[in-house]
Amino acid sequence: MVLRCAVLDDFQDAALASADWSPVEDRVEIVTFREHISDEDELASALADFDIVVTLRERVPFPAALFDRLPRLKLLVASGMRNSVIDYAAAERCGVTVCGTGSSSTPPVELTWALLLGLARDLVTENNALREGGPWQSTVGADLQGRRLGLLGLGRIGSRVAQVGLAFGMRVSAWSRNLTKERTDEVGVELASSKEELLSDSDFVSVHLALSDRTRGLLGAAELALLKPTAYLINTSRAAIVDQDALLAALHEGRIAGAGVDVFDVEPLPADHPMRTAPRLLATPHLGYVSQANYATYYGDAVEDIQAYLAGEPVRRLG
Fold first, then answer.
1. Which residue among 58, 148, 238, 304 is the active-site one?
2. How far apart are CA 207 and CA 209, in angstroms?
3. The CATH number of the domain covering residues in 106-283
4. Same fold, 3-103+291-310 and 106-283
């Protein structure tokens, strides 16, 4: 019997080319979905005839109600080893094995710096002017050397962002609720005494925290008001850590110099979402994890997960 596998959110039509699927092709029919499906009814209908689903990051929630509507589903593969939008108890109750994949912290580090540098040197404005016959130089870029980079979070990604900042000659400080001086000394950065101090002293603030009840809404209107009017905010972590309405207000009112954002409260962004037209915003469509090497890991490990499941010995189980 040939099983059917759905690969969700294959926006670039890259899933099949990113890995060798031949080890499972004799037993599994692979079907990719290039368009995102956000409606649960539509998703349940689309996946009704599939035994296996490969889902990309946390883009598609799998709540109990969805598992209940997919009696044929037996294996769910989620890229990465952490996924907050899967109801693991419901998966177990419905007999669905959930497995993860490897994931690299390098792509989000690199994108963080792409956004930061793009903001600092007004690259979009200057590129558009050059291509469209506009003014020859219309902005004066912000320097990095000697400026303060404030990091909210100093984990795998934050610590690597810090190293790049130090290489640029920046003064780097970090804060999170449980961050210790031993950790900041290990990375070679300063420990901010408080969130408020980090925000008010930094020229660039970058968010590198996991989303939790403690970090949801961590930066609201009051916190954003502490930023200098010349400061930039970069968020490649999770949209809910920064109050989206407060950020939009700060951008429209010119209370900060700009923001670089890769994550949003709704993804993909609706055509009329205010983030699409906000001033002083450099935005990318959640590209933090999107790279050739990371896709090779995601889909290569997905093939291994399917192989192991078919052999009766699942690997990288989640839940």
1. 238
2. 6
3. 3.40.50.720
4. yes
The helix (run of H) or strand (run of E) holding residue 32 is strand 28-32
Token readout for 85 is 């939008």
Catalytic residue among 40, 267, 273, 317: 267
Q: 156-167 and 106-120 helices cross at what angle (nearest 10)?
A: 40
User: Dihedral through CA 282, CA 288, CA 290, CA 291, nearest 10?
Assistant: 100
Given the residues 147, 148, 286, 304, the one annotated as active site? 286
Tell me the C-alpha to C-alpha distance, in Å, between residue 304 and each of 5, 93, 292.
Answer: 14, 24, 18
E strands of 86-166, at which residues? 97-99, 148-152
Sign of CA dihedral 318, 40, 286, 212: negative
Tell me the three state secondary structure of residue 273.
Answer: coil
Q: How far apart are CA 120 and CA 132, in angstroms?
A: 21
Number of residues written out for the chain: 319
Report the topology of domain 3-103+291-310.
Answer: Rossmann fold (3.40.50)
> Is the CB of residue 199 less than 8 Å from the CB of residue 205?
yes
Q: What is the mean pLDDT of residues 182-194?
A: 98
286 is catalytic: yes
pTM listed for this prediction: 0.94
What are the extents of the domains in the chain?
Answer: 3-103+291-310, 106-283
Pinpoint the alpha helices (H) of 121-254.
123-131, 156-167, 181-187, 195-201, 221-224, 244-252
> Tens digit of pLDDT for each residue in 242-277?
999 999 999 999 999 999 999 999 999 999 999 999
238 flagged as catalytic: yes
Structure tokens that stand for 318 in this block: 């989640």
Q: Read off the amino acid at residue 68.
A: D
